[in-house]
Amino acid sequence: MKMTGAQIICECLVREGVDVIFGILGGAILPLYDTLPQYPQLRHILVRHEQCAAHAADGYARATEKVGVCFATSGPGATNLVTGIANAYLDSSPMVAITGQVARPFIGKDAFQEVDITGITLPITKHNYLALDAASLARTVKEAFYLARSGRPGPVLIDVPRDVFIEEAEFHYPDKINLPGYKPTLQGHPTQIKKAAKLINEARQPAIIAGRGVILSRAYTELKQLAETAQIPVITTLLGIGCFPESHILSFGMLGMHGMAYANMAVSAADVIVAIGMRFDDRATASVSGFAPHARIIHIDIDPAEIGKNVPVDVPIVGDIKVVLNELNKQITLTKHIDWLGQLNDWQKKHPSTAIRDSQGLLPQFVVRKIYEVTKGEATIVTGVGQNQMWAAQHYCYDKPNSLISSGGLGTMGFGLPAAIGVKIGCPDNIVWCIDGDGSFQMTLQELATITQEKAAVKIAIIDNGYLGMVRQWQELFYGKRYVATPLSGPDYVKVAEAYGIPGLRVKHKEEVVPAIEQAMAEPGPFLIDFVVEPEENVYPMVRPGAALSELIEDPAARAQVLSDSAKLPASNISA
Amino acid sequence: MATTKHTLVALVEDKPGVLNRMASLFRRRSFNIESIAVGHSEIPHLSRMTIVVDGATTMVEQVRKQLDKVIDVVRVSDISGDDIIARELALIKVRTTPSTRSEIMQIVDIFRANIVDVGSDSVTVEVTGDEDKINSLFNLLRGFGINELARTGRIAMSRGGSSPLQVEKESASTRRRKQKG
Ligand SMILES: Cc1ncc(C[n+]2csc(CCOP(=O)(O)OP(=O)(O)O)c2C)c(N)n1
Ligand SMILES: [Mg+2]
Known about the structure:
The structure holds two protein chains of two kinds. By secondary structure, chain A is an alpha/beta fold. Chain A folds into three domains: 2-170, Thiamin diphosphate (ThDP)-binding fold, Pyr/PP domains (Rossmann fold, 3-Layer(aba) Sandwich), CATH 3.40.50.970; 190-350, Rossmann fold; 364-532, Thiamin diphosphate (ThDP)-binding fold, Pyr/PP domains (Rossmann fold). The N and C termini of chain A lie far apart (65 Å). Chain B has two domains: 4-81, 2-Layer Sandwich (Alpha-Beta Plaits), CATH 3.30.70.260; 85-155, 2-Layer Sandwich (Alpha-Beta Plaits), CATH 3.30.70. Helices cover 30% and strands 37% of the residues of chain B. Chain B is built from five helices and nine strands; from the N terminus they run βαββαββαββαββα. Chain B has helices at residues 18-28, 60-69, 101-110, 131-142, 169-180; strands at residues 5-13, 33-40, 46-54, 73-78, 84-95, 114-118, 122-129, 146-151, 155-158. In chain B, the strands form two sheets. In chain B, strands 5, 6, 7, 8 and 9 form a five-stranded antiparallel sheet that branches. Classes of the chains: A alpha/beta, B alpha+beta. The interface between A and B is medium-sized, with 22 and 29 residues.
């Protein structure tokens, strides 16, 4: 059957299981939008800035484990996507971005709203295409989705000239993918798996470091089986949070620059590290030379280029984590590490990194903890970037995969709100809280309009410290307290919300926190709370840039205090 | 041949932008590339690249793996450990005077090079060989004055029957046919 390029794209999207598209239109992509009404299965969410189309698609992808889709027009529409695409690339989020381009005869002529978006996104996409005829569109779209979701997932961009949307071609949906240069390795090498099993079975102080790869491979039960059989403590990266229940007795939180003291200590003392679906990011490892100095490292990842990139490893295993762990688990013997786990529990008692000290003022950590308690740990938390992000990671207890959605690799301020919209649209039954910084929120707050228009019941908690807080913390600690350009004013956030038709509250005192969160939860629609917190609160523990994980600094105030409220515990165990 | 130099050979899809993808990768990851040579391979629609990387300044295995990640790169292999034939071609335009011409021609003969163009005050020499040979010839001719030098960069192949870049030739060509149709 003959179809237009635009129809071919829509047909393919439907076949790929797409139900939501985030985007903004313009001249070059107008023919595609004009075709959308013929495909009522495709719901289009109009955002207010293309960056947010990409972030929303990214949030949607992370929450639903499907491919997120965004549209933008040529020129500025396409360049506005760039940050969102880079964000998805660094966090391996499956995404397909479709951009309009000037018509073929105008390409290369610096035509109105022409930019070379395939050139621009070359280093931040897994792959990209300039679709030069309608006849090749079906194959291109099919390949794009396959690439986006398979192997190590990532964003794929398809740039489509305006006249290609209109051009007619025979629609033939290819049944097979033929990409001779793309064959992800799924099975781990048996010899390597055997070596890894031997190391694990002989280890006295093993530790697992689990990353987002576990989530992308949905290897939760396999990870749990490995940890439980061999009694190995599980530590996660920021993006790995939720891949293993944090209330599990073997869970020891997140490692890294703002990781739990005991997690960093465990990694520093371990004799065997099983690194699973993580890529030794510098925020996770701190100084590479001081990283896990006593450990032999087993690294399991689907991307061969990650092996040995940052940290030399002893046993590399390239493969899909679920498949590899399945094989590995067959060779793991029941073990007990009583002394080692005892040591970790002892560290955890002595260094309760998630304890919150008593304070007159409103502490941001307290706010996060109360959101946790009121939501009973069942919310999906989407964060901004900065201190708010670290507190959200530290003080909420994540038991389910994809319950924390955060910009890890790129650390994109402004990610929170649009990503939360994507999550809520993709998983309407989830309770979605966006825990944002006042600076981060101001980068994309125009999306409040999208929330209202789409009736997306996102709950927003602004950690309003009046600073670009994380940078201020660096200035305080490493730049002689010279607060250059970090003090930050903002609008009256409650009034702003109101102007967009969203109810809200301002909270300045501890006792108002729980009632406010409860009110937000009782509200069927969106709700915003402006938590005016202690302005100069710092995130601890902290590993100074350049220092080793073991050289961490702990909260001086909290250390001095004897704490009844100790480490992160399941809701039932936390006293109010 | 200096031992730190690694020779990578790659088969890449003959598509617009593929060179750009590779160049972008080298720049972004600060890979130090000594030379790249590109041309057709024995398989239609696949180009063959020879890339020389200095192992002293760049992690060669990372280069290979990152190249392999580029979707349009079908195969890539580090053949430095193999017994290989490596060749480069150079064109060297040398200044001449009536008194130096015969000396230059003698040198060219010794190197089994050819004179491919003669001007009133210059000759153009074509030489094929490994880098050392070309370097030596260049150094000898330098005394006469060099007007221009063009080098292709290394191309290389393993000796013997097997190819490190074995691909299912069927699939690559069928694919093209399908795309065309
Ligand atoms: C788009 C972008 N610009 C700049 C930065 C650098 N940066 C990192 S954290 C931070 C401060 C964030 O401030 P805010 O959102 O208020 O969060 P807080 O740390 O105060 O909780 C800045 C400016 C960034 N990560 N992203
Ligand atoms: Mg702030």
